[in-house]
Design brief:
- 31% of the residues lie in helices and 35% in strands.
- The protein has 167 residues and is α+β, with helices and mostly antiparallel strands.
- It has one domain: Aminopeptidase, CATH 3.40.630.
- Strands 1-2-3-4-5-7-6 form a seven-stranded mixed β-sheet.
- A hairpin with a 2-residue loop joins strand 6 and strand 7.
- Helix 1 (13-26) packs across helix 2.
- It starts with a strand and ends with a strand.
């Protein structure tokens, strides 16, 4: 099947909810512990898109294989050209390039929108898949906060990475 990337719509919310729920319940990439319901996913999508930031999906036929979005890093005005990315891949599509495809498109969209910096806050310093994905997309390691989240009965680090979007 040919995989494509497009802007997400609210019709994708259920697929996005299912992908994210899997990661909430089974992974350390997010520190959320209870999967949000469909209405909350729709609210989050509308908030991001309503601020003019991209929310993208990689699709395989009719199936959402991965999604990525860029949200403001912080609410203060001085950060207005800095976004934080989020990327999640369906369990059925992991290690097949969907995350790479959608993150590359997200970077391009944010650069085209005039953003200057993209930051990644990656849950779990052992999350090699996400760290390598970001490295492949030009992100550099900036640091690690140790033992800042408690999930699944263990203390978890976050890894900070950054990519310049403009020269």
């Amino acid at each position: 099947m040919t995989r494509t990337v497009r802007r997400a719509t609210l019709a994708d919310a259920e697929s996005i909810r299912a992908i994210y729920a899997h990661h909430v319940l089974n992974g350390l990439g997010t520190f959320e512990e209870i999967p949000p319901d469909l209405d909350e996913i729709r609210r989050r999508m509308q908030a991001v898109m309503g601020q003019g930031h991209p929310w993208l999906v990689a699709v395989d036929g009719d199936a959402v294989a991965a999604y990525a979005y860029a949200a403001p890093f912080r609410p203060r005005s001085a950060y207005r050209f800095t976004v934080e990315d989020s990327v999640y891949v369906s369990p059925a599509h992991q290690r097949q390039g969907a995350g790479l495809l959608v993150l590359r498109e997200l970077i391009a969209a944010c650069a085209a929108d005039g953003m200057r910096e993209m930051l990644a806050v990656i849950g779990d310093s052992g999350n090699e898949a996400s760290i390598k994905l970001h490295e492949r997309c030009g992100f550099s390691f900036c640091g690690r906060f140790e033992s800042v989240g408690l999930k699944f009965g263990r203390w978890v680090d976050i890894v900070l990475m950054q990519r310049h979007l403009t020269v």
